[in-house]
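Reply to thread "Modeling small-molecule complexes from scratch"

Following up on the discussion above, here's a worked example others can learn from. I took a protein sequence and the SMILES for flavin-adenine dinucleotide and predicted the complex. Inputs first:
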Amino acid sequence: MALTAEQVAARTEDLLTHHLGEPESEFWGAQFDLGLAWIHFPEGKGGLGLDPGFQDLVDERLVAAKAPQNLLLNMMGVGMAGPTLVAFGTDEQQQRLLRPTFTCEEIWCQMFSEPGAGSDVASLATSAVRDGDEWVLNGQKVWTSMAHVARWGLLLVRTDPDAPKHRGLTYFYIDMHAPGVEIRPLRQMTGEAEFNEIFFTDVRIPDRQRIGEVGDGWNVAIATLMNERVMLGRVGKLSGEEGGVVRHALRLWRARDAEARDPVLRDRLVRLYVESEVVRLTMLRAEQQRAGGTPGPEGSLGRLMVSEHQQRCFEFIVNLLGAEGMLISDYSMRRPEVIGEVALGPDDKVDLQKGFLSTRGGTIGGGTTEISRNILGERVLGLPREPDATRDLPWSQIPRN
Ligand SMILES: Cc1cc2nc3c(=O)[nH]c(=O)nc-3n(C[C@H](O)[C@H](O)[C@H](O)COP(=O)(O)OP(=O)(O)OC[C@H]3O[C@@H](n4cnc5c(N)ncnc54)[C@H](O)[C@@H]3O)c2cc1C
């Protein structure tokens, strides 16, 4: 029989009582074993088969107890690979991969974007050609966050160039240490290289690492992208009291002398605070409307609101900092192990000036603001689909530059 909210709360208390203070991966392992990792997943696979709305109960309690959080450490694993594997993976793949993903012993990256395919990712050109029980992979991906620390990569590639662009794609996961995979850092304006470009030369992928049917990669990718948007929306909620990045603005404001707290700035701060609450409540509502495991387009709403809100908060913060807002602490090239930490991490890791720079990319990564608005227009408001003259043409006949 399905657990009640009280029973889930009791299980969460058990987790905290017996495992808080253990090394992080052991804590997350215990969370997985108790079914509190992804609560809507099946029992034995990190979940309890419950409505995904129950996850908020668990997350809020864990945040309040300052339990370790794994989402920023393995965003593509916990937020995207896990849900994709549960929806489309084989039982063997799920048994092998879900637990080490949640414990962060195995980090993931996501390889969809290419130099010639971003918003229109279905036009991608990296190819895999079947050779017996294996596939031979050639091509290039770009903007791949955290590939330098990843053990596994989610990969969308073209396996049938003569089918229309959405229908000739297949989805795999690959070993990022396999021969023929070359990862090169791409430096961002914070000085850090969180993302990378990846070159594949005759990389061999076993067919058992295919996720979903041959030619059905687009459907699998949609599930990954919907989960990505939900996850990007969730990130803000994991920062504890006074929700998300607005807390840095509040902290700076409170530290100001009374005469420096002018009413115009106060008005902007109050607006940001109200906005952060609207974002939080909208996310909660979207979560509760999500009946099954696979999220719908409402994830795009949360992701859109969170990314724009974070930018407005950091704009306010650098204004409050005045001249200091123009100084950067250090511009040396680093390859971070945790994504977005300078903006979204725990207070001792946040760097306000770098946070301002880093959140600029928030309205691009995971689908741009314009693409999110298109999705909301088409799938929520029911507006006509955007025209696409190449949709039904064989991909090999679409002009490319
Ligand atoms: C911080 C960050 C992390 C990222 N991490 C990853 C990752 O881990 N893995 C991965 O695969 N990718 C990643 N990306 C890439 C990201 O998904 C793409 O940058 C994004 O999808 C946009 O593609 P593009 O850069 O090719 O821009 P383009 O698609 O060329 O778009 C250029 C401009 O045109 C607009 N535009 C394009 N098409 C339309 C349209 N139909 N209607 C209206 N406007 C349109 C866009 O909104 C944008 O303003 C990341 C990007 C960033 C910034």
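What I'd highlight from this example: Residues 263-289 form the longest helix (27 residues). The mean pLDDT is 92. Questions welcome below.
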